[in-house]
Write a structure and sequence with these properties.
With 96 residues, this protein is an all-alpha fold. It has four helices and no strands. It has a domain of 28 residues. It is rod-shaped.
Length: 96
């Protein structure tokens, strides 16, 4: 801040207050944020903006799932030997 701006600080503050008074309408209100602590100021801004958005609880009802298949059946399938021939009797183990 330079010396000129310090000299005009009171004029600036009055002009800001007049501007707020003329432009603060119900459809578009002004909100001031104390910003001495930048982290808190930003969090307060986010909180304020989110508080103005209507929120509807949208979590769906829990689903009822059928019981899982046993892993034991899968292990048995993996341990069983592979067929050596297809349904037509062709040998699957030999080269085509």
């Amino acid at each position: 801040m330079d010396l000129e701006s310090r000299d005009r600080w009171v004029e600036y503050s009055k002009a800001k207050d007049v501007m707020f008074a003329h432009t603060n309408i119900p459809e578009a209100p002004w909100f001031t944020v104390k910003a001495d602590d930048k982290k808190r100021a930003r969090l307060n801004c986010v909180y304020h903006i989110l508080s103005k958005i209507p929120y509807v609880y949208m979590t769906p009802q829990p689903l009822e799932l059928s019981p899982r298949k046993s892993a034991w059946n899968l292990r048995l399938k993996m341990l069983l030997p592979l067929p050596s021939s297809d349904c037509r009797g062709r040998n699957l183990l030999m080269d085509a």
